């Protein structure tokens, strides 16, 4: 690390701390040449590989923008979208890979979006999964209904254990 004051090529780490969300490390450094201190911030990079082969940095803002289109006219808050984007980023970072396919980012969006708003989920899934027929929509809706019925059956079993 070059000293920003005297451009010396070496520095000594005096203190290291992780950020609140754990996504970066803040380091206090001291230059052995001029003795001045400075701060560096280290973050891990996560890149998305698009179908065209173009590689770009992962962006929560892009996730929010894509999901916002699917949520247009739905009662979904900006805070909910920000939390969804955070969950998506945590999911893709958990893979441990520095590069992830755009397709995998889309898959990571589907689960949290389904929990957030079923209509927005269907809109997003119809574009993302290239629905081409009414049967594609019917299958997705049937899956949502089956999950909903499964949840209500579980709730009944928990609520009425004597029966």
Automatic annotation (TrEMBL):
One GO process term, biological-process aspect: negative regulation of DNA-templated transcription
Q: Which InterPro entries match?
A: ATP-cone_dom, NrdR-like_N, RNR_NrdR-like
Cofactor(s) of this protein:
Zn(2+)
All residue ranges annotated as the ATP-cone domain in the record: 46-136
Sum up the protein's function in the record's words: Negatively regulates transcription of bacterial ribonucleotide reductase nrd genes and operons by binding to NrdR-boxes.
Q: Native species of this protein? A: Salana multivorans
Keywords, A to Z?
ATP-binding, DNA-binding, Metal-binding, Nucleotide-binding, Repressor, Transcription, Transcription regulation, Zinc, Zinc-finger
Family label? Belongs to the NrdR family.
Which positions make up the signal peptide?
A: none
Question: Pfam family of this protein, just one?
Answer: Zn_ribbon_NrdR
Q: What is this protein called?
A: Transcriptional repressor NrdR
Where are zinc fingers of the kind unnamed found along the chain?
3-34
Q: Name one GO molecular function term.
A: ATP binding
The record's remark on the cofactor is: Binds 1 zinc ion.
């Amino acid at each position: 690390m070059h000293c920003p004051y005297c451009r010396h090529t070496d520095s000594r780490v005096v203190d290291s701390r992780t950020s609140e969300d754990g996504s970066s490390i803040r380091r206090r450094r001291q230059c052995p040449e001029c003795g001045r201190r400075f701060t560096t911030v280290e973050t891990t990079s996560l890149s998305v590989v698009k179908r065209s082969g173009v590689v770009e940095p992962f962006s929560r803002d892009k996730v929010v923008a894509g999901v916002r289109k699917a949520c247009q006219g739905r009662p979904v808050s900006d805070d909910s979208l920000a939390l969804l984007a955070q969950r998506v980023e945590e999911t893709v970072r958990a893979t441990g890979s520095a590069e992830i396919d755009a397709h995998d980012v889309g898959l990571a969006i589907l689960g949290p979006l389904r929990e957030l708003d079923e209509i927005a989920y269907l809109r997003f899934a119809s574009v993302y999964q290239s629905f081409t027929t009414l049967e594609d929509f019917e299958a997705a809706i049937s899956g949502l209904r089956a999950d909903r019925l499964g949840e209500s059956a579980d709730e009944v079993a928990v609520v009425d254990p004597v029966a």
